Structures are given as C-alpha cells and as structure tokens.
C-alpha cells in the first residue's frame, strides 16, 4: 500500500512537470509570435509574417489548453491520493487483528519449541535415572517433572493448532483485502493515464489542424497576390498625369505686375488639395487664378529684408520627401511682418506649385551638434547568464538597447554595482574496509568558480581603473589547504582570523583573462573563472555523507551479497538529500541466475550488478539507513569478493560549509550555487 501512495504522488509530479514544460513552451511560442509581428512590414514578403504570427499564436493556444487540462488532471490525481490515504488508514485498522494473530502464532511457536525441548529433556532424565538404578524416590521425582513437561507440551500443541487456524483465516482475509486495494489502485491509475493520453492526443490533433491550416494559407499565398497587396497599399494611384497646355504670356498684363495663367487640372476633384462647391461644372477643366501683388516701394528696404528673413525662418527647417510624380496644388501663404509697428502690410503669394507623391508629414529638424545620450543604465538581474552590454545610438540620436544572448536583455554601466556569481563544487573520495569505521579513508577537495557576465568586459576595458574586486572566504577553519589562482588573486599571508581569509583581484590580469575568453567564445553570455582550490579537513567515516559496510558469503554454487548503508547528516554543513545514488559491484563465477532486494540490474556482458536508489535523506525510511541484498547462482563458482563503487550528488549544500562574502563597493553577488558529488567512493568486504 505504501508503494501505491508513492506511485500516485510520483505520477502527480510527472504530470505537473509535463504541465510546466508545456506552459514554458507556450510562452516561448507566444513570444515568437510577437516577434513575427515586429518583423519588417515593408516589401512583398510582409503579409507572410501575418500568416506566421497567426499560426504561432494558435500553436501557443493549443499548448496552453493542454496545460489547463493537465492542471485539472492534477487536481483529480491529488483527490485520489487523499482518498487513497484514507482508505489505507482504514485498512490498517481493519487488519489489526491479523497482526495480533501473526504475533500470537509467533509467540506460541516459540513457547511450543521451548516446551518440547523441556519435555524431551525431562523424559530422557527420567529414563536415565531408571537405567542407572537410582533410588525410587529420585525416579518418582523425575517422573513427576516429566509428566508436567508432557502436559505443558501437549497444551502448547493444542494452542498452536488453534492459533494456526486463526492465523490462516486472518491472513487469507487480509491478503484478499490487499489484493482488492491493489487492483482498484491499478485500475484508477490506468484511468488517470488514459485521461492524460487523451488530453495529449487531442492537443496533437489540434496542432495538426493548425499546421494544415498554415500549409493551406501558404499555398494560397501566391506571388501574384503578394505583389498585388504591395501595389494596393503602397501605390500612388491608377490614373496617369494629364497633359498641360502651353499658354502665351500677355505682355501688357505682365508690365503692370499682373500675370494670369489658365492651367488645366487633370486630377480628379476628390484628390485635389481643396475644392470649391460653387465653381464650374464637373465635366469642365478646373481653372485657378494666380495673382502676385508687388511690395510697395515706400515700405522701406529694412522691412522688406525682415519679411524675407521671416519667410526663410518659416520654411528653413522643412525637409520634403523626394518625389517622382507630380500633382497640382494651390499654395496660399499669408505672413504679416512682426516688426512693423506703424505699417500694416500683407504679402499674398498665389502661385502654382508642383509636388506629390502623397502628402507626408515633415521630418523633425536635424541638428549637427547634438551629442549622443549617456549609456543606458544597468537593468539589474539576479542571473549572471542574462547580461549584455550591447548598446548603440541611432541616426535620430535615440539610444537602442541591444538584447542579450541570455534569458533577459540588460546593459551594464560603469556606475552600477556589477553582478557576479559564485559556485562551490566539492568532491568526496572515500574507501570503506569492512565494517570497521577506523579503517575508512576520506579525502574531500573543492573548487571555487566565479562567473562574470558578458557585459562586464566592456565596463572593464572602457574604465582605466575599475573598482578592485575583493572578497572574504568564510569558514576557512574547516579547510586543510587553500590554493588560490596566483595569476589573478592576491592575499595577505599575515591575516590572523583563522575562520576567514581575504582575497583581492589583479584587475589588469582579470580584464586580460576575460577579454581573451571573449575573443575565443564571443557568443557566450557569461565566462567562468577558476578562482581557487581547497582541501577539507576530514574526520574519517564521520565526514562521509553515506556510510557503507559490505558483506560477501561465497560458496561454489552461490554468492550472497549484503550492503548496509546509513545517511550521515552530520557530515554536511546544511543537510540535504543525496540524489542519483548508484551502487555498482562486479561479480564473477559465472552468474546463471540472481535475485535482489531492492531490484537491481544485472549486466551479463560486463558481469556487473547495479542498484539505483531514490533520494536518501533524514526523511527516508529509518532516517536514511537500510540494507541491499542480492543472491547469485553460479555455474563456475566460487566468486571472488570485489570492490564496490558508489556514486551520488547533492545540490544546495557543501560538506565544508565554506562561503564567500563580497567586500567594498562596485559589485554585488547575484547568484551562489553549492553542490558536492562523489569522486572515488569505494567499499571492500
């Protein structure tokens, strides 16, 4: 029943993990769809991005729908887990009498065996006295004892018969209950898996439909249709420019300062710059009267100059887009002078102006002496893999922040606290000899690595004197030896604190190292630097996370193997579970058959046996202690006891407890990772 509860919880974890993966994939697809919508909308290919965007959004919706279904399924599984626990509790109460029957028959069996031994002894004693000619009194006395022993023995035989009958009845009933529970459990688990499979299958069908729709849309998107869409959206019109007739100039009118044109407007009335409802018939060509009134001479040269300057100022910053086709417009501008206090004058210019492509808004004024903006400030992130320093200035003097190669885009500026990450990785090597703890040999080593984001290189190279990176190594009293990277680190050997040690970087050497690493791998989001190595003080078997003792029993036909293990939280600075536990042992002698508890894997080609265990911690059965057993049937025995090898790892903690603390300003610790794993971890019998 316990394994049934475990399998139910593991199935819940599996479905939850699948849901998480689907949700992450859906978010990525949504992000991809948005990026497709931001791609260039110019050119004939632009409409294709709409097809991509729509299809990708639908795919994201399919996966989000699967997430919703899996979340509902998780609720159902969790409900079953709760009901299963209640049913198991009830069953335990119901089979309590079976446990009493088991204990009863065990007690009676022991008492029966003991009474039988006493009976045999008393009977033999009585017979011996009779044969040796002892006194009648001694013989009678021995007879009384033998009779009493006989009665006791017979009573236990009868009790055993009663206990045996009750035991068999209770065990049969209990076994049937257990079988019913397991059958119900398996059926329920199969129903859950069927719901899971159906949800995934429905999603696959939806994805197939979306893909088929995408294929159809692409097939229907012909070259002609794409070009037609571009023509309709970007074209300048379907009508060609009409002819303009030449009109002779009237010299008499020109002498008087008046010039008249008669100009045919071939543009349609609805496309004209402005229209008049009281003019000619629609079928007649439109006519425009152009009149230029010269400036009166008595206004003075200075006011004429001012008016011209004002006109220049009013159009000086206007930048017109180039044009390849023309359309007829009438431009009328009235510009009263602003420095004529005693005179009121209006210049009215009515002229024919040829322009346009379509009317476009004016570009903003450009200034040649504008300075680029300061570097964008650092967008703080807690992951060293999400940093970038790409920044550029566009033609319009607006900063464009580049995206990083890591998960999120940021830039680094020299005035910000620069993020770095640290990782401590330790390796535990151990050799166990039999069950004697004093013979255990242990060696623990560690590595400290710093991780620098890509953007920090630019800050270092552009700053002639970057802030010195200083840190304190803590809990060093547990270290036997420290070997810093002498090319990059400095330290003061006269430091008196036995539990910590200060280090600071050679910033020039660090900058050179990071620049070289960037040249070798320019696409990396961050760069790892090995800072120092150390060896941890060990206390024999007390420093091992997993204590081992191995026992072999070898005969010509069989080999029995037992491995005792015990989780040792005292060896860790912060106890956590050890995972990926694997135990490998070679067995020779021609293994023909084998069985083990728990079940393992036999490799007949390599003659090796492997156990794979779940995570081991204080929360495990017996607080992480247990035994592994295996029996091998041999064809050419006996076996020779061999060395057993073990591997495991643990995330989030170290054995030494060593830690790092940044000193000074200019830097911040964005991430700290700790782990340990086995090196050579072996045991002999």
From TrEMBL:
The keyword Membrane applies. Residues 379-396 have a biased composition (Low complexity). Residues 417-685 form the MHD domain. InterPro entries: AH/BAR_dom_sf, AP2_Mu_C_sf, F_BAR_dom, FCH_dom, GMIP/FCHO2-like_FCH, MHD, Muniscin_C. This is FCH and mu domain containing endocytic adaptor 2. The keyword Phosphoprotein applies. Its main location: membrane. PANTHER family: F-BAR DOMAIN ONLY PROTEIN 2, PROLINE-SERINE-THREONINE PHOSPHATASE INTERACTING PROTEIN 1. Residues 365-408 are annotated as: Disordered. Residues 63-90 form a coiled coil. It is found in: Membrane, Clathrin-coated pit. It holds the Pfam family muHD. It is a peripheral membrane protein. Belongs to the FCHO family. Keywords: Coated pit, Coiled coil, Endocytosis, Membrane, Phosphoprotein.
